[in-house]
Q: What sequence folds into this?
């Protein structure tokens, strides 16, 4: 991966993009992609890059830009901030963390406070509402100059690389996917394509999947591949939680199950084998819980596949992924799409 791509990824990871206010992330994405593709946006806030958009056969690749977040719920008279979740926050991991409140009066820092309760008094399943944020103010009047109900709250985190390969930061779910679809579009921009390619950095996946639905409805693709993250099984205890084995550093995970079009998967596997790109299989028997679930129900129905980046510690304040896996996903999607002729028949059964 070249320096420009690494800098782009770091910029995306540093940009605030809570589910519902992804504009800072999307601005960076658009400014990068417009150097090699046509770009547009829609009413959901989704950013779209396009190559050969007038082609008859259209392929959509989608990675969501939003990250899990919290929102200010109320402020008490002593200036303590109470909050709720905006996405899949894990409350048990919150006490003592530093956060940024994206206040209407500017960003301010805070720490998630907790009371000195005995173990017996601690809720077995804590909620965000069981905690508060201390920003160092002593009254509601002081803090209301900066913070009000509805302001977003994000974990404080900076991207780091461990052991030359393991990327750690908040928001790898799924800023890595947004990054990957941009890089795929960049690689494909150097080739002569027989099909139209649309890369979407979607919004709202962590809460309502509004961006995936609008992208599918707007683009009306003949085929779509969602690029997201999936749970690893190679840390202690994780192997018992996942129905299929997914290992960090062993390549992207290709989903198999009811939501997935088998013909699209055959194209992906063919490209992987031809280019010797490692991949793994994971089970999604009923739903993928990703943008693929919304895209496939747009229009008359879209044949979809899901290619996922193995991820450790998903929906926690610090997640971990392999840079080698990120590059493998880019290679796999690029090879799959570059091989398309536009004549593909993706019906599982022909008359």
A:
């Amino acid at each position: 991966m070249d320096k420009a791509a690494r800098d782009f990824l770091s910029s995306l990871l540093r940009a605030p993009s809570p589910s519902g206010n992804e504009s800072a992330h999307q601005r960076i994405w658009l400014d990068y992609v417009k150097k090699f593709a046509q770009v547009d946006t829609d009413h959901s806030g989704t950013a779209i890059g396009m190559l050969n958009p007038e082609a008859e056969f259209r392929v959509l690749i989608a990675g969501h830009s939003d990250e899990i977040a919290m929102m200010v719920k109320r402020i008490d008279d002593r200036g303590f901030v109470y909050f709720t979740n905006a996405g899949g926050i894990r409350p048990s991991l919150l006490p003592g963390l530093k956060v940024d409140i994206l206040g209407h009066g500017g960003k301010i820092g805070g720490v998630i406070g907790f009371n000195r309760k005995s173990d017996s008094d601690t809720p077995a399943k804590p909620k965000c509402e069981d905690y508060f944020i201390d920003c160092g103010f002593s009254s509601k009047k002081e803090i209301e100059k900066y913070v009000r109900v509805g302001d977003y709250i994000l974990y404080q985190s900076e991207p780091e690389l461990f052991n030359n390969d393991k990327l750690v930061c908040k928001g790898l779910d799924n800023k890595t996917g947004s990054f990957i679809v941009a890089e795929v579009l960049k690689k494909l921009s150097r080739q002569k394509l027989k099909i139209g390619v649309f890369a979407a950095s979607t919004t709202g996946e962590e809460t309502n999947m509004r961006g995936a639905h609008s992208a599918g409805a707007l683009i009306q693709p003949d085929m779509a591949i969602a690029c997201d993250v999936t749970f690893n099984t190679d840390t202690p205890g994780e192997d018992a939680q996942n129905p299929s084995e997914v290992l960090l550093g062993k390549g992207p995970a290709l989903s198999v199950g009811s939501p997935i079009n088998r013909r699209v998967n055959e194209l992906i596997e063919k490209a992987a084998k031809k280019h010797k790109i490692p991949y793994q299989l994971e089970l999604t028997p009923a739903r993928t819980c990703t943008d693929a679930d919304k895209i496939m129900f747009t229009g008359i129905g879209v044949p979809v596949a899901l290619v996922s980046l193995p991820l450790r510690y998903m929906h926690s304040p610090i997640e971990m992924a392999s840079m080698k896996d990120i590059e493998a996903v880019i290679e796999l999607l690029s090879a799959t799409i570059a091989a398309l002729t536009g004549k593909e028949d993706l019906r599982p059964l022909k008359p």
